[in-house]
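# nightly structure sweep
# worker-07 picked up a monomer target from the shared queue
# config: single-sequence mode, recycle default, output format = structure tokens
# input follows
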Amino acid sequence: MIAIIDYDAGNIKSVEKALKYLGADAEVTSDPEKIRKAERVVLPGVGVFGDAMGNLERYGLVPVIKEIASSGTPFLAICVGLQLLFESSEESEGVPGLSIFGGKIKRIPASDNLKVPQIGWNSLHLENSSRLLKGIDEGSYVYFVHSFYLEASDTNIVTSSTEYGAHIHASVEKDNVFATQFHPEKSSDTGLHILENFMRI
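# output follows
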């Protein structure tokens, strides 16, 4: 079973729908025991960094997520889920993240030429080896919805990047933990391929 962590964030149902389309036994839950027993765990979400961290705290999910991240269970974080894995965000000053990885979440710089938030498709530059992105071609397009972006401290965990007013670390991976700033569940065949890869890990 794939546990999709429910912490009152947006876009959770679309992740469930995509996984079930691929034949996965997926369940949206905030029950720590179900999450611990799952074969795979997904932390999706659209929303504000500080609110998301507050909800994880309120549901008692912070220790569960840290436990899963160190347990070897395949764990995928999407969009705000990715951002929560890091130390802090300019969106919510003073609110600590999960600090599973080192790095900061920064605001996409304002520009006359670019709309913020970025809503739409952008191409990926592949970096380092990746089990999650296996079979994905250089320059593949995926779907983003964000105003903030990751700058990881350790570039060895970065598996793809993109350019949108800044050099954006678009996905990361280390051991059993995988994360994407883009939305694979909204990224057509490329995104479904990524989710299939996760289901096979």
